[in-house]
Amino acid sequence: MTAPHPTAPATTAPATTAPDLTLPDATTTAPGRTAGSPLAAAPAPGRATTLPALVARQAELTPDALAVVDGDTTLTYGRLIQAGHALAARLREHEVVRGDRVALLTTRSYRTVVAQLGLWLAGAVCVPLDPAQPRPRTEAMIADAEVTLTLGDAKLLDAATLPGPVLTLPEEPLTSGRPVDESDPDSPAFIMFTSGSTGRPKGVLVPHGAIAELVTAPDYVTLNSRDRVLFHSPMTFDASTFEVWVALAAGAAVVVCTEQRPSLEDLARHVERHGVTVAFFTTALFHQLAARRSRVFAQLRSVVVGGEAMAAAQAREVLTAFPWLELVNGYGPTETTTFATAHRVTVRDCEGPVPIGRPIAGATAHVLDAAGRPVAEGGRGELWIGGSRLAHGYTGLPELTAERFVEHPAAGGRLYRTGDIVSLRPDGILQFHGRNDDQVKVRGFRIEPAEVEHALREQPDVDDAAVTVDGAGTAEARLVAFVVAAPGPVPTGAALRERLTGALPAHLVPDTVTVLERLPLTPAGKVDRRALTGRVRTAESGPADEPAAMTPLEQAVAEVWSQALGTEVTRADSEFLLLGGHSLLALVVTEDLREELGVEIALADFFAAPTVAAQAALVERALLDAHRDLHPETPEHSDAH
Q1: pTM value surpassing 0.70
Q2: Where is this region: Disordered (predicted)?
């Protein structure tokens, strides 16, 4: 279709001035480590291979073993590799050649796994797209990744009407086609997009070998061929690479969560139904599950958590209630291939901040000061990651690649600047202390506030904007925005927020937008973000008139909301999102409604009924439907009970 894309050379500009990594005089501090020396993981066995090769090996050893479970659909390893080769042959017929960037637009299903495998066997790079994100952002990603073809589900492709050629995935796995394998360990497997400070997402080129090294015979989590691993993360989230490929590398089974937006109860039922033993949860989701002592933990043997700092209290709750559970705290930006360090959490670890552990699977860790020199043991410094698991860089952004990925022979090659502040304990364990820049984490997503601010400033009635986090570092963290209106009609915060939903993915849309006369400044003339967070609770406070009395059912819903939101809800017209609600709190509310009122409400229905009154009506209908189910023979207008 096009000439093959180069990999690292296309994204790497001349390196910036390298930091001074000269090590101080060595004194022994721990077995095998000297003061100031980098932490290094032992080389993992998968670096010199590709992801298709891992599946092919399992297909040769155990062709009839279960590889993928998707509801009532199952694929063995033999069938999976056959379907992958057949799809690769079809892609070749459509002129896909090695190095082409091919976008993948699917809902999470077994076809996602087959599609990724087929793309790689054809030698292509997979660019995952989220069907739920706004079209302008999707089109920007397609352009920045230089996509030559979009492969996906027929309905999604028809609805999206994306630019460029498209190819529909077959409804059933293909069974015939000449075997082909054009994958290469050093070639990119994925282009994963993350939030970008310039107002556009940036695409990270993640190579096959780096993922293969992460998932092959991992020593940071217990895994064997009898395990079943839950696949419930969005395909655009790098954790999905762990969920799918750590299972397939081990000869285990991938269990696809068939609910696209699963509730807490959905997750528990799915894990129980399919005998899932290993799962990844974002830190925010883990905290919600832990707070409820969810029965999901009763089925699982190993849980990997990542995305934000793990709360010691929630970790202790889970380990005390489920003492057999292997709980792993994973850390790593997309640029270091999902996880760069990991730590098996014990109850003793919960006496203080939970550590992020040691480097894993070929990664190295360097704790450096502002001048780029190693920090003394116990001191705080920026974490730089090296080793064989680094991404190639950012597609189409050579200057940014050179800024974040620094070549330095003294460190054994390239290092990636994480921007995270850590310290090193005497036992060689890393402790996390936060960020050294404006980047934030909210509900597991990495967010550059500048990207959201850029989108707000693009609005014609906005002069300036500032975005910050309310409740940073807690499970209740939420993104909040403040704007200064341009001359003319003053927009409402709700209207601005509504416009952003058409320009940004859901996790980048602020939970509240407040219009101010001016942004507060520090004495140095910078936006005073601390002062802004103190004004959050006044955002979108709603009408000041006396609230009308609520019905008993509305009052019951309001009480559930109040408990989840941490603030008293007194009006039937109160809106969940404007009170600081978000998708994870919606999971909590739907679970509480199920426990308190005995009704099941899907998340899609929940967000379609945004007020207390609307949700009370939803609950009433659900209760009436349940009542009819108990008396199927009773006429609708009968007085019988």
Answers
A1: yes
A2: 1-45
